[in-house]
Design goal:
Chain lengths: 407, 407
């Protein structure tokens, strides 16, 4: 008997279930059983392992594709170094044997690829050749190296572009000067913040200023940028900024209020970057100022997924399953852009050792020289990723979701 | 020459432009010109008045219906008492005469209906019979009296139900105990918070707890509610709460941290209610805790408008225009529910004197006796309002918006 096990890991996205679909579809006729572990690698250790064919009907798959977050649950757990802590790996192999698992596909970001890399390294070093471990990429942050972009990112980018366009309309209704600061996810990479510029694609004003976390943030320059806009009679200023913007010394802007934002027990608390800047702008200009965190909605808004992202996420799942079945131990499926106009991609794979724990930053030539916007190169790169809309099935006025483990 | 003037006022919604469409369509063949004032009543005083036929093509109307916020801009300005300050009204009448305006339709909430009421009272008291002023309702808060519900509310409620369903999926992915506090708009009325319960319509768990601002909020009871859920092994607790929840003495929960949340200049700042409770929950249970403000997105998310809401908003605009053309001075168009299953409504009108400055609260029988949920009666009332989806036109991956005053 040969079985394939799949699990999901890291932060949820709107597309990670589509990758699960791709893996399930590509594997189901090639193995005896496709199993899913609940709560990532933690669930494998806990033998929280379920037969997906029993949980999933063919007719469920389109609903699963429009269900946000991880249908199998997730975890944030890093494995120890296999050289010095082999016990963890031994017990893992024992569980794989118990369930006749020959293939393990782990969907996740750079931490999860570290897990894939460690297990596959252990397998190679111990000459275990009948168990194959591969990775399928996932992250709204778009910060995995080697792959052109990451599944889940396109949908988050589409939500952000749409939401910023809507907020720009909302913020422009009054004639009084106002600043709206919108904080977008991304501690280390500004890809999602850059996607706010896509709100301008149909001629809208979009954000007046965009600050990505790749560039050191200078509060004085920021205030001078706003002052210039007010002088140019731009009265409704929408600012898009990464949660991870930091000063020249690497100190997060969100931490600069650490001494003054106390919780009710007197403990220091980090406000968000936008909240901190809200106070500074209000003090400087005395105008109406508001901060907005797009928060979990940007990764969960499956009702406005990018069709391109969903289709590619399925394909990347299929590609990962194929890598597993072809015994390409330690690989992660990737997407390569062959052409931008018309947009064409192809699928390939790479060693997870190259991907694990690395971060792909927004390159310098995608950030404007003024540091407060993105370049056309960024728009050209981002635009194809948000194209197309999933035809979402609604019931009772809300999108249908699939819950594999309804209690 | 007989002209009709329309203006929009108060906070934006996803449906207020549909009411504008209704007014425009019903009036255009009945008057010489349909004018729009930019930035509400303020724009009338400033003669910021535009001929809508020159700004709007017939083919623009479907795009206008999917454009959030006020296409004509808005303001927050209350008029003075006409008895003691007649000058303001005299200059208004002078402007109406200058533009041959016989009909003025003002779209807005209870403050705007105060404006309609004051102008119409002035007109009656001064025997000016050839100028008619009427109101068309609008507010995501759903707190206007006499009308069964308010245009804009259904779309906000649909966004909230969808978003809470998505967040519930997102928050359930980890196996560790966690509390997510979602703050929903509503300082005085809990209708939108109640709508979070609609996320359960397709069998999802939805919020574990719902606190509307109509009921005094007891922090000890709240902590005990969470404790009970943890004891019942509900590990991913999503709490929906109104921004306006307050204690038994009427003090807003958001103000209870006023002494400890200092801005960088040492000034007291009000955090949101959810932010305040986040600290309290974290301290009490030591678990992963997160607060989310749905913020302006709940009123601006026109990409997921309720078709029922959009259609009704158009009809309420038509009804308001008809009231104006039929010289029903001082009226506001309203919607009455004739039947709930199947859902049937009819349109009527009422004196703005009855509506002005009043707030319709969520009634007691829509809040559960435990105070931490809503009743079936609430669900039955709310459910029809979020039904149907607008077929949104996309271009370049984002919804098309119409900007009447593109600079």
């Amino acid at each position: 008997m040969k079985n394939l096990l799949v699990a999901q890991s890291g932060g949820p996205t709107a597309a990670i279930n589509s990758t699960l679909i791709g893996i399930y579809n590509a594997a189901k006729s090639k193995v005896d059983n496709v199993y899913g572990a609940r709560y990532g690698i933690k669930g494998v250790f806990n033998k929280d392992i379920h037969n997906l064919s029993k949980l999933l009907n063919e007719s469920d798959l389109p609903i699963l594709a429009q269900t946000p977050a991880c249908a199998l649950g997730s975890c944030r757990q890093k494995l120890k170094d296999p050289q010095n802590y082999p016990e963890q790996y031994e017990s893992l192999i024992k569980i794989f044997r118990e369930y006749s698992i020959n293939y393990f596909v782990y969907i996740g970001g750079n931490d999860s690829m570290d897990t894939v890399n460690k297990i596959s390294t252990y397998l190679k070093q111990n000459n275990i050749n009948d168990i194959i471990v591969v990775g399928a990429p996932k992250t709204i942050d778009n910060d995995l190296v080697e792959t052109d972009h990451c599944p889940g990112f396109g949908s988050a980018a589409k939500y952000i572009a749409t939401t910023i366009a809507e907020l720009e309309r909302d913020c422009s209704v009054y004639s009084v000067p106002a600043v709206t600061l919108v904080e977008i996810m991304g501690r280390d990479a500004g890809w999602l913040t850059a996607a706010s510029a896509l709100s301008r694609l149909n001629g809208s004003k979009g954000p007046s200023l965009i600050y990505c976390c790749e560039k050191a943030f200078d509060t004085h320059l920021f205030l001078s940028d706003i002052k210039k806009l007010f002088e140019k009679k731009d009265n409704s200023i929408l600012v898009a900024l990464s949660e991870g913007i930091h000063d020249n010394n690497g100190r997060y802007i969100s931490e600069t209020a650490g001494q003054t934002y106390l919780d009710e027990f007197g403990h220091k608390q980090n406000a968000g970057a936008a909240k901190v800047l809200e106070q500074i702008v209000k003090k400087e200009f005395g105008c109406k100022t508001r901060s907005i965190e797009i928060n979990l909605m940007q990764r969960a808004a499956a009702h406005i997924s990018s069709l391109t992202d969903i289709n590619e996420s399925i394909k990347l799942g299929e590609q990962a399953a194929k890598c597993a079945l072809n015994e390409m131990n330690g690989k992660m499926s990737i997407i390569l852009r062959k052409n931008n106009n018309p947009y064409e991609v192809e699928y390939s794979s790479i060693n997870t050792s190259i991907v694990a724990n690395k971060v792909k930053h927004l390159p310098n030539d995608m950030i404007s020289s003024s540091g407060n916007d993105v370049t056309n190169k960024a728009i050209e790169y981002l635009k194809p990723l948000i194209q197309g809309e999933l035809t979402v099935k609604y019931k009772n006025g809300i999108p249908l979701h699939l819950n594999l483990f309804q209690e």
